[in-house]
Specification:
Length: about 350
């Protein structure tokens, strides 16, 4: 708790006031386990919606929780960063693991997540045949995953963004590599599947949100690594999505695009909503350069199947060429977070 001395006296008192009420402390414990709605919380705690909403408002004003809208629903979760949250998390760690109230809340939370997983699985099952058909056309997912991990390397990732996250597969694949992660998708059904998958894998460092890939609901220059996995061929203007992704990168951050190489399977347009029949090395590389990024590597993964039904998957790796220099003291105290301090030198070509 040595970093807590950086909080001023008034700030500490404000956090303690916000947390120092049984319902609000229970809410924080639940929201530390993932995204939940007011409806979820009223079901778990057995309290009225106005009462829960009032407590959530106070926690939000204290800077302890995030709120984001997804259609008619609002989701809440414990913030992942900030001095106030550091203190709140420490208080949660000091609660008794066998406290009867918290244990009962945990059981009800498991029930809520189980129902959520069942609904998500029903949607997934309805579409599984279509997804399986597409997978049979190109290289195995396991081979793509291995190539991606090899490409990214062992360096720890502070913040990770997955655009068009779908089932949250990238968030699961790279869990353990990042400190925090966000997945964005335009389909609420797919987000339900992703949440269920993150719950099942007990991944609390990642969250998913509804959003437009062309106009992301996020702070710019906030991510070290961004992936766009098998998404661009569904878009009418993929180059705009690449520009928006580049806007999200921190200096020195990396963007990885995984998509199909050019092919002639016209039926994918009508039966699977593909707007583009793959992308050449040159096309994506040109778009990356126009977005101000340097292309570092391009890799093709062939399925090994014979005939015109085989699809090749291509991976593009690009980097924001701006340099961010941190002081030696900053680097020694926090090597992962060093990119958040110091001076930015913009050397991108106009």
């Amino acid at each position: 708790m040595t970093d807590l001395v950086k909080l001023g006296l008034d700030d500490v008192v404000d956090v303690l006031k916000a947390v120092g009420e049984p319902t609000r402390l229970r809410l924080l414990a639940l929201l530390a386990a993932g995204d939940l709605t007011v409806t979820d919380l009223t079901e778990i705690l057995g309290q009225s919606q106005p009462r829960i909403s009032r407590h959530l408002k106070l926690l939000g004003e204290a800077g302890l929780i995030d709120r984001y809208q997804e259609g008619a629903w609002a989701y809440f979760r414990l913030k992942q960063e900030g001095k106030a949250v550091t203190l709140a998390r420490s208080l949660l760690r000091h609660t008794a693991e066998k406290d009867t109230v918290l244990l009962r809340d945990g059981e009800r939370l498991s029930s809520v997540k189980r129902v959520r997983a069942e609904r998500a699985q029903a949607y997934f099952s309805r579409n599984a045949a279509e997804w399986d058909e597409l997978r049979r056309l190109h290289v195995a997912d396991e081979d793509v995953d291995k190539a991606l991990i090899d490409l990214i390397g062992p360096q720890p990732i502070d913040s990770f963004l997955d655009l068009g996250t779908g089932t949250g597969r990238m968030l699961q694949l790279l869990a353990g590599h990042y400190r925090r992660a966000v997945g964005i998708d335009a389909s609420r059904d797919m987000l339900a599947v992703a949440r269920a998958n993150l719950d099942r894998a007990n991944i609390t460092a990642a969250s998913v949100r509804h959003g437009d890939i062309f106009n992301l609901p996020l702070e710019q220059q906030d991510f070290d690594l961004i992936t766009i996995h098998q998404v661009l061929h569904f878009l009418d203007q993929p180059e705009v999505a690449i520009n928006e992704a580049a806007r999200m990168l921190r200096p020195g951050g990396r963007l990885v695009i995984i998509d199909l190489a050019p092919h002639g399977l016209e039926y994918l347009r009508d039966e699977h909503a593909h707007l583009r029949l793959g992308f050449s090395h040159q096309t994506i590389s040109d778009w990356l350069k126009l977005a101000g990024l340097d292309v570092e590597r391009v890799q093709d993964l062939h399925s090994g199947r014979e005939g015109g039904q085989a699809l090749t998957v291509t991976i593009w790796l690009a980097r924001d060429p701006r340099l961010l220099i941190a002081s030696d003291q900053d680097r020694q105290s926090s090597p992962i977070l060093a990119g958040r301090v110091g001076h930015v030198f913009d050397i991108r070509k106009p």
